[in-house]
Fold these 2 entries.
Entry 1:
Amino acid sequence: EGIAPPKRILFPPEKICMVWQQRQRAGAGLCNVGNTCFLNSVLQCLTYTPPLANYLLSREHSRACHQQGFCMMCIMEAHVNKVLHSPVSAILPLAVLKVFRRIGEHFQPGREEDAHDFLCCTVNAMQRACLSANNDLDLSSQSTTIVYQIFGGFLRSRVTCFSCEAISDSYEAFLDVPLDIKAASSLTAALEEFVTPEHLDGDNCFKCDK
Ligand SMILES: [Zn+2]
Ligand SMILES: [Zn+2]
């Protein structure tokens, strides 16, 4: 609806498994090497995202990856396998620390960075890695990577004119949804607040061309 169907399917949606495929005990913790708690917390969230972890544990990515040099999916695959198979209680996330500046050029080693910013940059880097061999894909096909299917989507903004009821839709691709969690009592409430219709007036008023 409103978005052209993809010309190519990069990852078949039926292969995405939302529940753990193998029983997992909690994996290793991550050592802080100085102001890296923002990085560790993001890595832990991603490691315990079952559809992503299932895929990375299968090592399907690296078996087919032809990327020369930096590939965030190869890095995450190595990290998740290390964390979830480690016999020790805490490890250094060395593979990720090594490519820290490639994940986001603005990141400064030793500086406390913003966890949300780091998450967005990491998910974006994973998405770029999934697309690496497919440079000239339409937007719709780009949304068929495993990363996009787990984290992404399309936001539809719909404006309805009160005088003639004309509808105008616009779509925007996203890999994260910014929610106001301070004001909300639950995630569901925050999502409901995010999609609550607004009455546009004043400077925001929609100029209907009909
Ligand atoms: Zn790779
Ligand atoms: Zn109108």
Entry 2:
Amino acid sequence: MPTLFDPIDLGAIHAPNRILMAPLTRARATREAVPTPIMAEYYAQRAGAGLIISEATGISREGLGWPYAPGLWTDEQVAAWKPVTDAVHKAGGRIVAQLWHMGRQVHSSVTGMQPVSSSATRTEGQAHTFEGKQDFETARPLELSEIPRLLDDYERATRNALAAGFDGVQIHAANGYLIDEFLRDGANHREDEYGGSPENRIRLLREIAERVISVAGKERVGVRLSPNGASQGVDDSDPASVFVPAARMLSDLGIAFLELREIGPDGTYGRTDVPKLSPQIREVFQGPLILNSDFDSRAKAQAALDSGVADGIAFGRTFLANPDLPERLRIDAPLNQSDMATWYSQGPEGYIDYPTLDEQSRAA
Ligand SMILES: Cc1cc2nc3c(=O)[nH]c(=O)nc-3n(C[C@H](O)[C@H](O)[C@H](O)COP(=O)(O)O)c2cc1C
């Protein structure tokens, strides 16, 4: 069985190790969703990852409701991403852009329009807005006639990602956002060809993946799914019935990698008792399978590789707090803990100031 430190080809992307950086929203862009120079420093610090998956990045104004998160729909955003991808490459790393449409989880005070989703539903709780948290609003169902425009938005974002120097893209189909709102029957109540049977609910993901692949090539396209348990209010009555065929469909398309965010009963950031689907997905997905959630030690991550269920591990909070995570895992060094208070705060604090081991030993 491979170790975490063995290389792996994720489609056309040659990763020198199997330690991926999971996508992490950090809200350090401008109000207009334009990346800022500290983002180049932050990602370059983490270039030791086999592959960096960027923070979720809006494909359109309609799809991005998170204050100060970045986008990929304007020329200004593309130009400002370029120094970020350049800095990662110069530091020896690789980075793909996570393409994000938040569906019903946006607020009109940020996007200037009513949220869209598969159906007229509303998330419980409150949305992040520039004016603090506000109650989520009821979404309007996407019209059939709007789907071509949505696919065009994904195409434009993919072209822009490549123009900005990203090594590829990851389609964000997890965590209760738009694509997940089509996949799961707890949010999708449509009666047309995008609702009802699992095959119909998978249709939007397939069409988006095909469109993105038509631009970037299958070897540069990954997908993220969150197949077990409710995710930000989106759930399914029979997760295996939709996620196993979705994974088979993605396998048939030949994507570069599939990443599963699978929380468990011991999750420290979300918990569920719903059994993990990764063993079933492993059987139908032929490409590299990456697992995420709560791998906060070398032993836990290596055990997942040893069991044969995963080809690589994506680390979220541990990468956030440890810019030199691969080196720390290699020598099994202690890990910094991430500070929730600065997850989404603007500015450099809690962003580019987590120390490396070297910096810690020099300070001691
Ligand atoms: C601050 C923060 C921001 C996150 N942003 C994203 C995101 O932009 N896209 C995404 O798919 N998941 C996002 N997640 C989920 C993480 O990618 C990951 O699934 C989660 O942190 C569990 O993994 P971990 O136990 O390794 O931290 C975020 C999590 C945190 C803590």
